[in-house]
Amino acid sequence: MAEKIRTLIVDDEPLARRNLRLLLEKDPQIEIVDECRNGREAVKAINDLTPDLLFLDIQMPEMDGFEVIENVGTERIHAIIFVTAFDQYALKAFEVHALDYLLKPFDDARFKKALQQAKSQIEQREINKISKKLLALLEDRESKREHSPREKPYLTRLMVKLANRVVLLKVSEIDWIEADGNYAKLHVGRKAHLLREKMHDLEAQLDPQNFVRIHRSIIVNLERIKELHPHFNGDYIVVLEDGVQLKLSRSRREQLESRLKAVS
Length: 264
Prior knowledge:
alpha/beta; Rossmann fold; CATH 2.40.50.1020; 2 domains; five-stranded parallel beta sheet; five-stranded antiparallel beta sheet; 8 helices; 15 strands; 37% helix; elongated
């Protein structure tokens, strides 16, 4: 291969990024275009730099590796190696869909094997195949998440701290939720309350029959949705009953439409 393989490293652990960089720098075919500390940085870097090869950590705060793929779209990823601390049972998903992974901690031999496979993939330009594999993995993950039994019931009330008191807020009264750093901002009518909870964790505690994530930073109460308006580049705008307009990610449009049909 005459051209360099433009490579992006994504991991929230500095030591893990350093180890990957040291191993990749030994290969003259590799050009490291950037390193990312979290999923948000990764989405921007993938869109801006269009790397050939992606080393992607799965378990990251705020936005995990799967959410990165959902946000950028599978068609933008030429080759991917998941880097994870998942247990062996969870890793069967990658094996079933023929996607390579590195289980932390990994040795040099395992790294070389994964890198060689990625090189072959890039050389053969099997972009359509990798896209189909990633889509199948995401669909399988979503299906298992929806059908897995829950140990805890979904939230019906939330404790919200105000200046001099604590208020019990009914979850059904929430119109929509947006990410605000390490907090979630709960919009209830004209009021907004801050809750110290990450979006990913809060989403898992909300009944998916009533709430749906329409953007990496937005969760909406399905009953508050009034209209969907087409926007630029295949995106949509979700209009709530009170006139609030929220962006709908392309990757989440199908899921939202499916949920809306289910409740109509």
